[in-house]
Amino acid sequence: MSAVFVRVALDHPLPTLFDYRYDLAPRPEAGLLVRVPFGRRDVVGLICEVTTQSDVPADKLRAVEAICDACAPLSGEWRALAAFAAEYYQRGLGEVALPALPQALRDASRWARLFAPAERYQLLPAGRAVLPDALPARAHALRRLAEALAAQPALAAADARALHPKASTTLAEWQSKGWVVREEKDDAPELPDELTNDALLPRLTQEQQEAVDAITAARSFAPFLLHGVTGSGKTEVYLHALAGLLHARPDAQALVLVPEINLTPQFEAAFRARFAALPEGAIVTMHSGLAEGERVRNWLAAHTGRARIVLGTRLAILASMPGLALIVVDEEHDPAYKQQEGLRYSARDLAIYRAKQREIPVVLGSATPSLESWWQAEQGRYTRLTLSRRAVAEAVLPSVRLVDLEEERRRGRASIEGLSGPLVAALKSRLERGEQSLVFLNRRGYAPILSCDACGWVAGCPRCSAYVVLHKPERNLRCHHCGWEARIPKSCPDCGNVDIAPMGRGTQRVEETLASAVPGARVLRIDADSTRRKGSAQALFSDVHAGEVDILVGTQMIAKGHDFQRVTLVGVLNADTALFSHDFRASERLFAQLMQVSGRAGRSGLPGEVVIQTRYPRHALYHALARHDYVGFANSTLTERRDAHLPPFVYQALLRAEGRTLEAALGFLQQAATAFAPLPGADRVTVYDAVPLTIVKVFNVHRAQLLLECASRAALQTALRAWQPELRSLKGVLRWAVEVDPLDI
Ligand code: ADP
Ligand code: ZN
Ligand code: ZN
């Protein structure tokens, strides 16, 4: 018999597969996980090829130590998806494939336990007749095992092992005597007669019906852009499309992505209510907030096909789903779909690739689509489905009012700590009517700056080139970039002046101001600080839904997706800063954010109002917002982008470098640029000068980047690929990484 070798992908930056000898009993197969020695450690890898020869000299080859054959291999299709992501984002295959698996699968010591629950033993009548009497009286462990078998319909192998360490051997023996039978419990997906109770469903609007029909009619790759104003009932469209699919095919699976963990409970509840007839375990969630056990259970449910609906955040895009038949990306414009560390992928873009790979429909939903997706629809590459009105018959889009802060000041009108008179009056009237308000500003903490009037000292982070934020409830100063914390000084550390004062406002300060400006109001703050504990965000949102809150103040966490029924007023503070950002995407992001947060008002039929405080009431962005004119905003912004040769009309990539000094980082980038010039395809790529990042130093590391731009995606990809070995040979920085399609520049 000839020797067998396997080529294994490991989570390692080298973009190669690693060869190992294979001489274990179970048959090796591409897609199975193995434990292999690597350097001095043992690691888990993914078999990509099984061969009978290896170029590695026999004395250098090491052997596979264990194979995980209890779980079906990851399909060739899944591996191709991982390979595409690796290729596109300039990484090694293993760097994509392995981190995509739940941690428990990447720890070989846990494999046995993971798959045990499916294996169960049932006591047969022949066994019942002789057990436990046939056992020696002193064999306590064996007797306990027999009693446990008699006491329940089926005993899980894991439980059997807990009763008796040699249970597997004993049970195999008993099975050969015909006393017990082993069953693999693998719930085959059943299809109930009626998945949904149609009588309870709202009648779809005509626009919703047309959207559902278009999606359910698709039989191959079909990208849809579901452009629906806030409150137009996009969720209902997803639910109907899902119902159609789950009905039609008992093995079909759907993947629904949401941008934030906090939005999963709302969707999960809607899915469970609508598809209550689906068997246990048919709807699973996948996000970083799950406990490890649950994460791997849900992953396996998707992998075996038992899960019919997988609801998750961006990481779920790499779930193994053999029956995948529909992908939904809700709030597709949301920057949270972009992973910002490690493999910097866009889950939305991978969703499109995955749908194409599987020849299935994919629905991108949003009230404010990304300009990338909008442009695809404009060109006819995505089919546009429009929901132009709110679904609830009486609900109309809120009216938008701009409060001119300059004019308020000129006329000497009173404001309270940054809350203008008109906003305070509007808040009070909502309180009187028993309606809820929402106050939005994108800055957490109490004040972004603590400074000394006498000498000009400003509290900064010793490790970063950034100011630190004053946090009042926690009574400290915090760096939002590196996490550095310090007590609030009693006097200026430079001149001793005791009159140091907070400048500017964050959510904590606004919360404090609201409590005094609107007496009697129950104010609740929701931001990253108030929801740090697991599950606390959910509890806070429940309070809002239960009507136990009058004014909700918070960051973008409150702006997205939530279906608040009683909110009729939205106040927006401090939006102006984003109008003049150096980032060309800042206005797109601001518009989307304001449109989303405005969309929280007036969803149930009570008239809604949005009050925006600004120094630039004539700015075109605010005007488009007041007219709810996404289309106008999108088209004029696209024209600007085209004129300025910016995405989506060109493709970009960044090379980021981190060094002990800024000179080191910039020097590395300069060498990299020199190495890039002669590469194939490079003549079509514009390479800009290396520049420091706006916040150049974080945690004592200096950061700089090099921007590359090209009108052809293919040419850029070719050049980037050829650049990798050159980059690996350069030295002098702590870290470097290539980022394709960056969102923050
Ligand atoms: P979107 O995600 O588009 O902002 P939602 O899906 O949250 O909107 O729906 C907004 C509200 O409209 C929800 O309360 C939902 O129950 C309701 N709704 C959706 N479709 C209909 C319909 N056809 N008839 C009545 N109410 C509907
Ligand atoms: Zn001072
Ligand atoms: Zn810092």
TrEMBL record:
HAMAP family: PriA. Initiates the restart of stalled replication forks, which reloads the replicative helicase on sites other than the origin of replication. Recognizes and binds to abandoned replication forks and remodels them to uncover a helicase loading site. Promotes assembly of the primosome at these replication forks. This is Replication restart protein PriA. It catalyses: ATP + H2O = ADP + phosphate + H(+); Couples ATP hydrolysis with the unwinding of duplex DNA by translocating in the 3'-5' direction. Residues 215-387 form the Helicase ATP-binding domain. Zn(2+) 1 binds at residues 452, 455, 492, 495. The keyword Ribosomal protein does not apply. Its EC number is 5.6.2.4. It comes from Caballeronia humi. Belongs to the helicase family. PriA subfamily. SMART domains: DEXDc (SM00487), HELICc (SM00490). It holds the Pfam family PriA_3primeBD. GO terms for biological process: DNA recombination; DNA replication initiation; DNA replication, synthesis of primer; double-strand break repair. Its cofactor is Zn(2+). Residues 487-639 form the Helicase C-terminal domain.
